[in-house]
């Protein structure tokens, strides 16, 4: 068996966390290849190394003395090195990095957190060090060159029985360092898993996987032990964030499972993400997630259904203002467009004026302070009455639904409610499909 093992920033934040990583890695010989993020926060008042590196780059760009910021970064790495008794001459490389700061671009600067962390981790584990810049290849359009990356990775596996690999970056088509979005270490691990056809991609973080609802709203929600990629995508989009969304795609097609695990509680079962599995969920739903602060534009026009392209014309106006649309619930002669309030608030009146002038609707109005809650579960389509049960429970608790949307794959039902009912809605749905099911 082959496991690609990725440790997030909180898992490598200090020497004590390095020790936990070593215990985890050494406990299973299948953990041959380790991916690390840059050191994260050690406590609530601490700084992430990557944040400090972005700050260092800002000082460079504005020609401001950056020595204080650099010393914070250097001290963090030296503290880990000294506490673990490592021999890596990292202080010399750090000093060289700072001396050459003005010759570097932002991508190279902010990637050094992962680079230096991987150097230290490789020595601590007794593994080889492989630089992501030499392995992950981007094309000119910034997509991954899978064949080139696979070939280079395979060659390194022949060279090293075990190695540590920095996350977050790779090499561009012109040989420069190119970074992923923030949180991109998750993507790096997924790339290695796909290229090496791993049996599982382990993603170690500071939580024991996904929960069925936000624990700040629902007390002690159930753990999600198994979830499909499709279900995860729905929940992640609505704010249930543990894993970088883009990390799903490299392994989804190969159906390589992602196992979310807790570095601080390695005994916990965690969450397994896999599209095709034999797990039988005891509940009709897999999870609940939601977001607040949406706005709805309601448009009515007599005989709209006979007017070709009416909705498209409205959407074109929104597109001109770079407004992303969340949902479009519709009727025969009316429809609503749900958008993020912060995206549209600066241009709302201009957009409404254009819709009135260009499309001459009989009625147009807005509704603010809408929250969206998605109830997600692949089991829902196989259980008749699920929608009725959900809507009935909300009605019984005096929660007014202002919008309903259901995905064509029938794995999610999204309702819009007033912001004041946001937390209550999540609690009611959880009680309906989980608490009562457990009691029955």
Helix content: 25-40%
- CATH class (first level) name of the largest domain: Alpha Beta
CATH level-4 homologous superfamily of the largest domain: Acetylglutamate kinase-like
Which regions are unreliable across 5 or more consecutive residues at pLDDT < 50? none
Number of DSSP strand runs: 18
Give the radius of gyration. Answer: 25 Å
Number of domains: 2
The major sheet is characterized as: 8 strands, mixed
Q: Which architecture of the largest domain would the CATH scheme give at its second level?
A: 3-Layer(aba) Sandwich
* Molecular shape: globular
Percentage beta strand: 15-25%
Order of strands, widest sheet: 3-4-2-1-7-11-12-10
Sheet/helix structural class: alpha/beta
- Give the termini separation: 41 Å
Mean pLDDT across all amino acids: 93
The CATH topology annotation of the largest domain reads as Carbamate kinase
Please supply descriptive tags for the structure shown above.
single chain; 440 residues; alpha/beta; Carbamate kinase; VC0802-like; 2 domains; eight-stranded mixed sheet; six-stranded antiparallel sheet; 15 helices; 18 strands; globular
Textual characterization of the structure:
This protein has 440 residues and is α/β, with parallel strands linked by helices. The strands form four sheets. The protein has an eight-stranded mixed beta sheet with strand order 3-4-2-1-7-11-12-10, with helices on both faces. The protein has a six-stranded antiparallel beta sheet with strand order 14-15-13-16-18-17. The chain is globular. The protein has 15 helices and 18 strands. The chain has two domains: 271 residues, Acetylglutamate kinase-like (Carbamate kinase); 153 residues, VC0802-like (2-Layer Sandwich).
């Amino acid at each position: 068996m082959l496991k690609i093992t990725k440790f997030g920033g909180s898992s490598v934040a200090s020497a004590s966390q390095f020790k936990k990583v070593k215990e985890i890695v050494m406990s299973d010989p299948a953990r041959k290849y380790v991916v690390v993020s840059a050191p994260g926060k050690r406590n609530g008042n601490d700084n992430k190394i990557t944040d400090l590196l972005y700050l260092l780059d800002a000082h460079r760009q504005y020609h401001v003395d950056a020595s204080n910021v650099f010393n914070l970064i250097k001290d963090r790495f030296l503290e880990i090195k000294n506490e673990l008794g490592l021999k890596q001459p990292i202080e010399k490389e750090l000093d060289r990095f700072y001396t050459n700061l003005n010759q570097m671009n932002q991508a190279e600067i902010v990637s050094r957190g992962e680079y230096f962390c991987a150097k230290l981790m490789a020595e601590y584990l007794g593994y080889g060090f492989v630089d992501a810049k030499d392995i992950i290849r981007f094309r000119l359009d910034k997509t991954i060159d899978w064949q080139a990356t696979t070939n280079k990775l395979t060659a390194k596996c022949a060279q090293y029985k075990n190695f540590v690999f920095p996350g977050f970056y790779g090499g561009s088509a012109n040989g420069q360092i190119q970074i992923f979005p923030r949180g991109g270490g998750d993507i790096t691990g997924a790339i290695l898993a796909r290229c090496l056809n791993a049996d599982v991609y382990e993603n170690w973080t500071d939580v024991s996987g996904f929960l069925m609802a936000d624990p700040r709203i629902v007390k002690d929600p159930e753990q999600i032990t198994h979830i499909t990629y499709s279900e995860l995508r729905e929940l992640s989009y609505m704010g249930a964030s543990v894993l970088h969304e883009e990390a799903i795609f490299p392994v989804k097609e190969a159906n390589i499972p992602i196992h979310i695990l807790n570095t601080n509680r390695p005994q916990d079962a965690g969450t397994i993400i896999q599209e095709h599995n034999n797990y039988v969920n005891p509940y009709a739903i897999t999870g609940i997630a939601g977001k607040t602060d949406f706005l709805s534009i309601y448009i009515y026009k007599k005989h709209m259904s006979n007017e070709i392209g009416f909705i498209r014309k409205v959407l074109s106006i929104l597109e001109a203002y770079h407004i992303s649309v969340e949902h479009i619930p519709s009727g025969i002669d009316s429809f609503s467009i749900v958008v993020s309030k912060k995206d549209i608030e600066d241009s709302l009146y201009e957009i409404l004026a254009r819709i009135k002038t260009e499309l001459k609707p009989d009625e147009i109005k807005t509704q603010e302070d809408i929250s969206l809650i998605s109830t997600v579960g692949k089991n829902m389509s196989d259980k008749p009455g699920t929608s009725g049960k959900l809507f009935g429970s909300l009605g019984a608790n005096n929660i007014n639904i202002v919008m309903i949307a259901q995905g064509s794959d029938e794995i999610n039902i999204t309702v819009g409610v007033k912001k004041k009912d946001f937390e209550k809605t999540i609690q009611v749905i959880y009680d309906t499909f989980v608490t009562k099911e457990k009691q029955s």
